[in-house]
Amino acid sequence: MRIPNYIGGEEVASSATRSMPVTNPGTGEIIAELPLSPISELDAAVKVAAEAQKAWAEITVKDRVQVLFRMKTLMEAEVERLAELITVENGKTMPESRGSILRAVECLEFASSLPQIGTGAGLEVSRGVECRSHRFPLGVTVGITPFNFPLMVPLWMAPLALASGNAFILKPSEQTPLSALELAKLFDRAGLPAGLFSVLNGDREIVEAICDHPGIAAIAFVGSTPVARAVHTRGAAAGKRMRALGGAKNHLVVVPDADTEMTASNVVASVTGCAGQRCMAASVLLAVGEVDHVIDRVREKMAAVVAGGDMGPMISRAAWERVSGYIDRAEAGGATLLLDGRGQVAPDASPEGYWLGPCIIDRARPDHESACDEIFGPVLTIIRCDTLEEALAIENANPYGNAAAIYTSSGKVAQHFVDRAGAGMIGVNIGVPVPREPFAFGGWNDSRIGEGEITGMGAIEFWSRSKKVTSKWSTEHSANWMS
Fold first, then answer.
1. Residue 385: active-site member
2. Is the pLDDT of residue 475 over 80?
C-alpha cells in the first residue's frame, strides 16, 4: 500500500520519487510505503487551504464548532477501530490506544466551547468611548507531530486552529502516517469543508519547506528538543508564529513517608506506559533517605510487566538498539541493574517485534548518561539522595523542564517541592501529571521552545490574532480627549 496525501477533501497520490517503509513495530512487518512528498505538493496543499480558508473565516465561530461536535460523536462511535489502527502502526497496547483517543476527544470538546470561552472583551473606557477586542484567524496553519501519539497530538492542535477560522495542514511522523489519513477522512465525514484539513507526508525536506513557505502563518511542533529548536529558529526567521515542544527528562522524588503501594504502582505505570516512549514518562527516581522498601516494591511490580503482553514494543529497530545501548553501557560500566528487561518477551509475541522489557539502573551518579539523556524507553534510573534539597538540586540542574513529581504523605513537603521544582508540569503522588483542558500542556526550559500555548486557554491566542476597536458615536461629549 502506497499511502496518499489528503488534499482538497480527497486522497491524492504523491508524485514523490523517494519513499520509505512503514512497519508494524510489534511484528517488524512492512505494512505500507510512505512517499516523501516534494515541495511542489506542499505548494498545492497551501494553495487549496488558503482558498478554502477565505470562506471558512466568514462563518461564525458558533457554526464552525458544529463540525467538532460531529467529529466527537464519530470518534466516540469508532474508538475500537481507531485504537486497532494506532496499535498496528505505533505498537501501543489496546488500552493505551483507547486512552489516547479519549484524551483527543477532550480536545474536541474544549475547542467546541470556543463560542463561550473565546468571546472578546469590551469596556466603556471614557464617556461615550468604547474599546472592544475581536479575534481573527491567521490563515493557513500547520502541525508537525511525533510518532508516539499519532492521533492525540494532532488533535491538540487542529480543533482550536479550525474553530478559530484557520485552515490546517498536518505533517505527521513518517513512522505513523495511517492515523493522520484516517483523521482527515473523519473530518470529511463530520462535514468540514474540503481543503480545510490536509495531510502532507514527508521528511526533513518537507519540514524545512514548511518553515520557509510564505503562505503559512503559524506552525506548532512536537518532537525532540534539537529538532524543535531547528524548526522554531527556521520558522521564526521566516516571520511565522511558532510554538515547539521538545524532549524531557522527568524526575520522580520519593521520600520515606510515601505510600508504598500507591507509589510503586504509579511509578511503574509512569515508566512503562507506552513503553516509555512519551515525554511524560518517568525516567529518573530520586530516592531520598531510607526508601528501599518502596524501591523493592517498584522492582517487584516492574518485573511483572511483560513486553508483548502488558507493554508494547519500541517504535523501530533503531529505537530498540539505541535504548538497549544504554543498558549495555551501564552494565559494562559497573552500574547496578536491579532489573534487566533485555530478552524479556511474552511467549506469544512475534520474535520479529522490537521488544524490550522494563529495566532499572540503580545507584547512578547524577552525571551518568542514563541520568541525563532522554532515553525514551522503559528504563528507570535511580539516584540516591540524602535530603530533599539534594534531590531538588539535581532536578533543577536538569536542562529540561517538562515534568516532575513527588511522592509523599505530607502536604508541607509536597508544597515545598511544588514551589521549588524546575518544571512546568508538577505531580503530587501522580507520575504522569498531564494537565487536562482547559489547562495547557507544556514544560519549561529545553522542553519548550518559544512562547504561547498549543493547548488549553492560551492556545486561543496562539491560533488567532486580536483586533482592537475603539469607537465613539455620540457628539455630546466632543471635548473628550479621545475626540
1. no
2. no
DSSP H or E run through 392: helix 388-397
Distance CA 406, CA 252 (A): 6
pTM above 0.90, yes or no: yes
Burial of 250 (0-12, 13-18, 19+ CB in 10 A): buried
Region for residue 375 given its phi and psi (left: phi exceeds 0; alpha: psi -120 to 50; beta: otherwise): alpha
Sign of the four-CA dihedral 386, 387, 389, 394: positive
446 torsion bin: left (phi>0), alpha (psi -120 to 50), beta (else)? alpha
In a domain, 39, yes or no: yes
Query: How do beta strands 425-428 and 197-199 pair?
Result: unpaired
My answer on whether 221 and 264 are in the same domain is no
Using alpha carbons, select from 33, 46, 66 the residue that is nearest to residue 190: 66
In a domain, 434, yes or no: no
pLDDT digits (tens, 9 = 90+) for 211-256: 999 999 999 999 999 999 999 999 999 999 999 999 999 999 999 9
| Domain region containing 139 | 5-246+447-469
Which has the closest alpha carbon to 218: 66, 60, 46?
46
Please give the DSSP secondary-structure letter assigned to residue 469: E
Q: Are residues 127 and 225 in the same domain?
A: yes
C-alpha cell at 464: 488567532
- 296 and 193 in a single domain? The answer is no
Say which residues have a Cβ less than 8 Å from residue 107's Cβ, sequence separation at least 6: 152, 155, 156, 159, 160, 437, 455
| Residue 291, helix vs strand vs coil | coil
Q: Same structural domain for residues 300 and 366?
A: yes
315/176 Cα distance (integer angstroms): 9
> Which phi and psi angles does 457 have, rounded to 5°?
-60, -40
What is the mean predicted confidence (pLDDT) over 27-45? 97
- Please pick, among 107, 211, 279, 359, the residue that the annotation labels catalytic: 279
Residue from 177, 199, 171, 6 nearest 86 by CA: 177
Judge contact between 27 and 352, C-beta under 8 A: yes
| 180 touches 199 (CB < 8 A) | yes
The whole-angstrom separation of Cα 340 and Cα 363 is: 15
